[in-house]
Amino acid sequence: MSAHINEITTKRILLVEADHELSSQIQLNLQSLNLDVIPCSNLSEAKHHVNTQDFDLVLMERQLPDGEGLLLCMQLLEQQKEIPIMFLTNKGSEADIVLGLESGADDYLVKPFSVLELRARVKVLLRRFTKRTPTNDNYLQFADMYINTDTREVITNDQTINLTATEFDLLCYLAQHPQKVFSRMQLLEAVWGYSYSGYEHTVNSHINRLRAKLSHYFNEDIVKTVWGVGYKFTPPQIQAA
């Protein structure tokens, strides 16, 4: 068994899929990676599971018999539960993908998809969000802004900025390379772990959400667009009151 598979041996996945045949296929493939897959087929069951159990990843369809999967995504954001979410859905227009990502999803895979691609993305998400034991000594500081890479907190003026897991990873990566410009494809590879052409809007959506949150704490845009190239982190100089 490969080292990559060993890394995710004990992980638990909530699979929310109304198509029972597809759900069974996904379960079999992920169980072959020694993952514990908990299936359900509607939104109410999914909400019950996330409220009563701990999961390392949620895979879900958007169009469920009793509602829109985006509702669960937004619920997890409101509860500040750092559980990565990947949508597996037929809703594949650019507008749908952007909406899914801006609702808080970390990844978005359009049906029909390759089982190999699904397995690869699941591995990447689980590795990215594996919690580490905090040491409280790994952090970045820019003026009054602190980014703790162990506790995964961003603090400025004694206020904690609430970010999703992907928003934190994106900010942290940019902040580790101040003023360096990264293309969308470079950020996909570094933060998401893949660089498939056509998924650049994933970066755009998360950058937009990240900027919106940071704007409440800083008088300046610290994640800047370099037109025609990509994005860069500019350390803050003046804090907002």
UniProtKB/TrEMBL annotation:
- Where on the tree of life does the source sit, at the highest rank? Bacteria
Q: Name one GO molecular function term.
A: phosphorelay response regulator activity
What keywords are annotated for this sequence in UniProt? Answer: DNA-binding, Phosphoprotein, Transcription, Transcription regulation, Two-component regulatory system
Which Pfam family, any one of them, does this sequence belong to?
Trans_reg_C
Q: Where is the OmpR/PhoB-type domain?
A: 137-235
Which PROSITE patterns did the record assign? Answer: OMPR_PHOB, RESPONSE_REGULATORY
Identify one Gene Ontology CC term for this UniProt entry.
protein-DNA complex
Q: Where is the Response regulatory domain?
A: 12-126
InterPro entries attached here? CheY-like_superfamily (IPR011006), OmpR/PhoB-type_DNA-bd (IPR001867), Sig_transdc_resp-reg_C-effctor (IPR016032), Sig_transdc_resp-reg_receiver (IPR001789), WalR-like (IPR039420), WH-like_DNA-bd_sf (IPR036388)
Transmembrane annotation, as ranges: none
What positions does the DNA-binding region cover?
137-235
Gene Ontology terms: biological process: regulation of DNA-templated transcription
Q: What does this protein do?
A: This protein is a positive regulator for the phosphate regulon. Transcription of this operon is positively regulated by PhoB and PhoR when phosphate is limited.
Looking up PANTHER family in the UniProt record yields: DNA-BINDING DUAL MASTER TRANSCRIPTIONAL REGULATOR RPAA, REGULATOR OF RPOS
Q: In its UniProt entry, what is this protein called?
A: Phosphate regulon transcriptional regulatory protein PhoB
